[in-house]
Amino acid sequence: MPCNLTAFVMGFLLKEYTDGTYNYSDGINNDILDVAKLKEMVSEIIKHQQNPIPRYKDKFIVTTTAEERAFNEASSKIFGIPINLCNSVEQTRERIRQKMKNLSFPIWVLKYVLDGATLKSGKDVVSSLIDDYSGIANNSNYGIAKTDSDIAMAIGKLCIENPGVIDDLALLVTKDKCTEGMKAYLKQYEDGVLPKLANEVNDGGQFINRLKKKFDADAANWVWNTDTANQKINEVVQEYRIIAQSNKILPKSTSFDGTIREWTDKCDMIRISYLYAKNYWEDLSDLMELLYDIKKSGVLLESKREKFLEQITTNGDAFNRFYNSQTDLFKKACAFIVGRFSNQEIQEIFRLLPKNLFTAEKSDYQSTVQSTVDKYISEQSAAKLKEMWRNKTQTDSPRQWSKKYLMPILCMISSEDVPAARAAFGALNRKNPDANSIEKATEFLERADFFERLSSQEERDKAFRENIVKSYSVMLEDLDEVRNDLKRRIPVDPYDWFGLPDVDAKLAAMAEYNYNKTGCGKALEKIEDMDAAEAKQYLKRLIKDNMIVGMEIIKGK
Fold it and tell me: What number of other Cβ atoms are within 10 A of residue 381's Cβ?
């Protein structure tokens, strides 16, 4: 019956179990059973009997052997686990495994730094303890089957017989020491192949961090035995072999990720679609397929690394030969499109292609090549057209000719040819005319008969007077002065003066100014010099020839 007397009797009968040789357990937590813990256990069970406690856990008194206690105490000190969390083999084992997860490498690598360590116990003793703790992490690491309890008892016995071994291992179980141990292990693994490769590529010691990433990638790395760890080491060795071999082909890199980036950058400069030229790669087929996958995904899958290493070793020189003379393969793969061009023209077309075409789909690549060929043809035709113009006029364009002579070039063209000339001159003035405009402009210039007139000062003045100044030429006799005045007053290029109303308005203003200045006086003088009959006859002719004069006379009446 739950009461104070029951509690007293239970405490009296159970007090002999508080001598430190027994543990308290609720199935999850374990601790040394002392008087305080016994009082807590008895109090809780009495209260639970009176008023059930939610989530109550049954309490037990459990026995521990000297070896088990030694195992728990040693593990607490070595791995920095609070002693109250190390009260059973199962509980301590789980705590040890959690601590091992925080180490950089499996604990067995510590055996490779024992030669340089100052030990209270012997090297063999510490090595044996390391093996036992490796077994606690994963008992399959033992050659023969042992239970966790067997291994724990062996650890406890070893620590009882060699108390100094606890301090020895406690000083070794750190991230830095595990890293040091792995470096020591790598020096003797396959004659130090990984450090040698790392030195060859001048990685500054980063190989150990690359290996650490391999271990960090697996949450269970702390249970790995040497065989499993060696597989990861071999993966890093393979990566460094790829770096070293790639450095013979690419700009130097010191890391695997950097090497893959160099390969993708190299692929950016390949102006041939892998898929479009798939039937022409010959010995490079396997390597180019691997590079295609790398460029598409940005990574080299582990399953393909051995093949990639084999390919760059076997075909690295062939790849460089292809890369440095891509036009040879381009000419074969795109023969239908570029077959009509000379080798030099094909090289020029190839240089016009954009970068990053290696992973292009066949249809996209063909379209790109065709548009590049069209652009090349257009540019070549445009260049020939402009060269023809320069040879005939010693100017770069009709617009530049007009600036040079301060007159619109269209005024040099016969009226029936002005529309065609305007279109042709427009093509010459544009930076990138279309193919149709170039063709029509070429045809027009080849049959043109005005080039000789363009170089004649007399012809230029005549055309400017007749087609620009027109009737105002009586008042505007100095054509150079007229040109310069228009340049100052008209805010557009001389090429655009042709047919511009603002030009006519400015010429009218200039003519009126000159008329008011001297022209009117000259006209009056002429009339004064005429007799009445002659003046009358002149006025009649003027009325017949000039509607404006006739209208002014009518209005005057």
Answer: 17
Please provide the size of the chain in residues: 557
Residue 543 lies in a domain: no
CA atoms within 13 A on the CB side of 107: 30
More confident residue, 244 or 557: 244
Q: Which residue, 210, 244, 278, sits at the end of a domain?
A: 244
DSSP 8-state class, residue 334: T
Q: How many domains does the chain contain in total?
A: 4
Shared-domain flag, residues 97 and 232: yes
The token pair that represents 529 in the structure block: 């010099």
Domain that holds residue 75: 68-244
Q: How far apart, in whole angstroms, are the C-alpha atoms of residue 369 and residue 346?
A: 11
Q: And the tokens for 154? A: 């062996």
Residue 261: inside a domain, yes or no?
yes
Q: Which of 421, 472, 428 is nearest to 447 (CA)?
A: 421
Q: Do residue 206 and residue 294 come from a single domain?
A: no
For residues 160 and 36, membership in a common domain is answered with: no
What phi, psi does 63 have (nearest 5°)? -90, 150
Are 272 and 349 in contact, with CB atoms under 8 Å apart? Answer: no
Q: What percent of the chain has pLDDT over 70?
A: 83
Query: Are 165 and 91 spatial neighbours (Cβ–Cβ below 8 Å)?
Result: no
CA angle (431, 457, 413) in 5-degree steps = 55
Which of 186, 210, 244 lies at the terminal end of a domain, its last residue?
244
Q: Where are the beta strands (DSSP E) in 3-125?
A: 22-25, 30-32, 60-63
Question: How buried is 275 (Cβ within 10 angstroms: 0-12 exposed, 13-18 middle, 19+ buried)?
Answer: middle
Structure tokens at 99: 């601590």
Q: Kindly state the percentage of the chain with pLDDT values over 90.
A: 59
pTM to 2 decimals? 0.69
Distance (Å) of CA 155 to CA 105, 135, 203 = 21, 10, 41
Q: What is the mean pLDDT of residues 93-114?
A: 90
Q: What is the DSSP string of 202-268?
A: T-TTTHHHHHHHHHHTSTTGGG--HHHHHHHHHHHHHHHHHHHHHTTTSS--SSHHHHHHHHHHHHH
Residue 83 domain flag = yes
Angle at the Cα of 529 from the Cα atoms of 524 and 534, rounded to 5 degrees = 100
Q: What is the mean pLDDT of residues 274-298?
A: 97
What is the distance between the alpha carbons of residues 551 and 532, in angstroms, rounded to a whole number? Answer: 22
329 is a domain residue: yes
